[in-house]
């Protein structure tokens, strides 16, 4: 199985990096295409094939992943369309704000459309730790398991209706930035309390790792784990109440919702 990654920007580069670290493809079966060659050198050093020609990239590829800015998806499709083999190739679009209906319209050739997947991951995919949302077109459902397996190897996946893709992006794609902002703020608090900046960050990151493990392994609601460390009159409840007085929960909720406006 071979894959072509069209685009080596932030997300395209993260996707290619994850694939090269993963178990689904040999490095030589991964081709990364980008108009600027300087962005491709790192992938060649990891064993991938590279090219500045998108049409060359898709030759012999079983999967063609479009990982470019939404505004150029149509022009890239117009470039690739004559070379695509709809009987053999699967098209994966990873650009947000483009619908399956638009992709089918742009890709239609002799009244036929290919197997199309909308896949929206986050940049954690570079470390095989993405939360990826997958929505196929009708024809794509016949190979859903194959595409899901690829992204399962790069983190966790959720098959969803197309209407929920953008909400998923707000929670998981934008959510990476929200989590990073929490780490920064909590680290700054640690510095104010007397720790060096690097030590404060390490404390917060490891604490987050522990919280994530507890939720994943136990399956508990977050409040159940909060209750375990919240004692009457203790440090935790004082801190939680201070956060709520300053709008912590509401800020998180409104921030995620605002991403969709």
Automatic annotation (TrEMBL):
Organism name: Hallella bergensis DSM 17361
Free-text function comment from the UniProt entry: Catalyzes the reduction of 1-pyrroline-5-carboxylate (PCA) to L-proline.
Molecular functions (GO terms): pyrroline-5-carboxylate reductase activity
Enzyme Commission code: 1.5.1.2
Gene3D superfamilies the record matches: NAD(P)-binding Rossmann-like Domain (3.40.50.720), ProC C-terminal domain-like (1.10.3730.10)
HAMAP family: P5C_reductase (MF_01925)
Chain ranges of the Pyrroline-5-carboxylate reductase catalytic N-terminal domain: 2-96
Similarity-based family: Belongs to the pyrroline-5-carboxylate reductase family.
Annotated pathway: Amino-acid biosynthesis; L-proline biosynthesis; L-proline from L-glutamate 5-semialdehyde: step 1/1
GO cellular component: cytoplasm
Enzyme class name: oxidoreductase
Protein name: Pyrroline-5-carboxylate reductase
Entry annotated with the keyword Iron: no
């Amino acid at each position: 199985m071979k894959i072509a990654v069209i685009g080596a920007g932030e997300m395209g580069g993260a996707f290619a990096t994850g694939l090269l670290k993963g178990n689904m493809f040999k490095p030589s079966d991964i081709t990364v295409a980008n108009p600027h060659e300087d962005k491709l050198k790192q992938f060649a050093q990891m064993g991938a094939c590279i090219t500045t020609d998108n049409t060359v990239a898709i030759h012999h590829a079983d999967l063609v992943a479009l990982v470019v800015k939404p505004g150029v998806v149509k022009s890239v499709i117009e470039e690739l369309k004559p070379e695509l083999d709809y009987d053999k190739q699967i098209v994966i679009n990873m650009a947000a704000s483009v619908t399956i209906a638009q992709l089918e319209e742009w890709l239609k050739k002799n009244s036929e459309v290919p197997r199309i997947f909308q896949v929206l991951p986050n940049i954690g995919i570079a470390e095989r730790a993405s939360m990826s949302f997958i929505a196929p077109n009708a024809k794509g459902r016949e190979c859903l398991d194959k595409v899901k397996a690829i992204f399962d190897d790069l983190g966790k996946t959720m098959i969803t209706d197309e209407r929920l893709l953008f909400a998923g992006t707000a929670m998981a794609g934008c959510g990476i930035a929200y989590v990073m902002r929490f780490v920064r703020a909590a680290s700054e608090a640690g510095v104010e309390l007397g720790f060096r900046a690097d030590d404060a960050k390490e404390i917060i990151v490891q604490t987050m790792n522990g919280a994530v493990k507890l939720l994943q392994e136990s399956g508990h609601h977050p409040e159940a784990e909060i209750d375990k460390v919240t004692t009457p009159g203790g440090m935790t409840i004082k801190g939680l109440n201070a956060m709520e007085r300053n709008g912590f929960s509401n800020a998180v909720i409104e921030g995620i919702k605002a991403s969709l406006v």
